[in-house]
Amino acid sequence: MKRSVKIFIALIVLIVVARLLLPYFVLRYVNKTLADLGDYTGHVEDIDIALLRGAYQINNLVIRKVNGKVKEPFVSIPKSDLSVEWRALFKGRLVGEVECYKPELNFAFSENEATSQTGEGADWTKVVKDLLPIQINRFALFDGRIDLKNLVTNPGSDLSLQKVNGELKNIRNVDEKPGSLPSPVWLTGDVPGYGGTMRFSANTYLLKDIPDFNYDLQFNDLQLVKLNELARHYANVDFEGGTMSVFSEMAMNDRKLNGYLKPLTKDMTIFRLKEPGEKRTIGRFFTELLAEGGSEVLENQKRDQVATRVPLTGTIDDIKTPVWPTIFGVLRNAYVSAFEKKFDNDITFTDAFKSFKESVKEKRAERKAERKQKRAARKAERQRRRAERKAANDKK
Prior knowledge:
By secondary structure, the protein is an alpha+beta fold. It has helices at residues 3-35, 86-90, 124-131, 228-235, 282-297, 323-335, 349-395, and strands at 40-50, 55-65, 75-84, 95-101, 104-108, 135-153, 156-169, 183-190, 197-205, 212-223, 241-253, 256-269, 305-307, 310-315, 318-320. The protein is built from seven helices and 15 strands.
């Protein structure tokens, strides 16, 4: 056998062996990367390599909170595909994309750290960079599920989004100039627990502990009877029928935010003379009667709609909802001009950015006033000491 043939066969054998061993080494690398994520830890069951596509598939990825008491894992993804974009490669750019199929995210909100699971305590952008150490141009998910437990804590109220599809672009190719939102994202899903659907779209700047964003969020045709647990707790009433849609725009820059919520009810019914299957207290009977009368007074008769706009301002830690603009919004909808079932398109990222700059100016002014006050106090103290020394000298 010729030497060249032997070399060729040896290369083929080497490639085959490398192909067989590569998934093992990649699996070890991925599990090592996921083992220590700060407050979280992860594990992958299997890796499949697709050399011709320049990709690898991660099977059964699970991430759990360390020392957490939440039963469900924070992330569970049966199948993920991480690959190189060949079209970009032909243009001389090495970028990749990530696709996740049937992913599940489980958030839990609680003041108790052990029963809270929000993703804080881990650098998720670093995880993605380590698993695919090239520029990431696209992240997509298909047929996912997002559970939010205790979103409203008193009473406990959960929100589940199902059949979730979404896409996030330009994750790593960011412009770090102030006021820049280079990463667009959209998300859609069903809200089976309340009936209705959800649609979310935003432009974001992700490479921060708390990302900057400018979003549009809408929930359509939520069934009011599904909200009765909250209605009983906060208003001592039951809804008997009707739907609600919610529109919201929000912009946030460095934890400073500006936006609104616009709830609109349709065909809302609160009071019925007889409610079969339920023993209603006298207090609730009259509360629901008064609420029904109030809703009739505040309803836009032409559209059978009660609505308002709730301004949201402040910081992520202290969100303010002014009362009077909310009340005037109800009256405006009823007697002046009905709110439209759409976005108002009057919130921009510039609003939050200006608010942030105003906050910086306020802090500077506060620090300046504090320094001035301290200087005055030190001056008064020096004058007092001089007066005491002078008085002591005069006695001598």
